[in-house]
Amino acid sequence: MKKPIKITTLFVDIGGVLLTDGWSHEFRKRAVKTFGLDMEEMERGNNQTYDMYESGYLTIEEYLDRIVFYKKRSFTSAQFRKFIFAQSKPFIQMIELIRRLKSRYGLKIVVVSNEARELNAYRIRKFKLDTVVDIFISSCFVHIRKPDAKIFQLALDITQTPVRHVIYIENTPLFVQIAKGLGIRSILHTDYKSTCAKLASFGLKSEI
């Protein structure tokens, strides 16, 4: 019988897997309603600047100056930032799953995620992700965003893990496709139960 390949490293996304998205279209719609903004104007500004923001080339203040505070508002930038940060919620089952797998199998846990610097720092601190994750390959730190395949190659290079020993958990089909193109076995995350079953098929059982 062929011996199964041992998994030593788990690549995992943050938004949509461990936590809610950081700053999605739905959250921007919520901000428009809360602060009385124009959705079309906000989306136009966001579309023109978001790649730079998530790639670490704009601070949150610079980003908001371009999409919200290009004119005088009745609210402050601090109030708007507080609203953005408050949208983040944890998927506790998924965080605890990763924690159990890390402890049980001695896995190296590596985040590969598109996140802006200030929001990423807040989410890591608020939800204590650094107690579970060993390495953060966040777009704001490395100046590369998914779907650029180079971010996955960088994660492989930094962790010095042969691709055959890696599993990647991601909720965006395109990013799963790109990771698979590099030989990274990947799980398209849709819910906790199905992801547990897929991990078990790779030899990573959440319950023994």
Describe the secondary-structure layout.
Layout: E1 9-12, H1 25-35, H2 39-54, H3 60-67, H4 77-86, H5 92-105, E2 108-113, H6 117-126, E3 135-138, H7 139-142, H8 150-159, E4 166-170, H9 173-181, E5 185-188, H10 192-201
Parallel strand pairs: 1-2, 1-4, 2-3, 4-5
Helix pairs in contact: 2-3
What structural keywords apply?
208 residues, alpha/beta, Rossmann fold, DNA polymerase, domain 1, 2 domains, five-stranded parallel β-sheet, 10 helices
Explain what this protein looks like in three dimensions.
By secondary structure, the chain is an alpha/beta fold. It has 2 domains: 124 residues, HAD superfamily/HAD-like (Rossmann fold), CATH 3.40.50; 62 residues, DNA polymerase, domain 1, CATH 1.10.150.240. Helices cover 49% and strands 11% of the residues. The chain contains 10 helices and 5 strands, in the order βαααααβαβααβαβα. It has a 5-stranded parallel beta sheet, with helices on both faces. The longest helix has 16 residues. The radius of gyration is 18 Å and the shape is elongated.
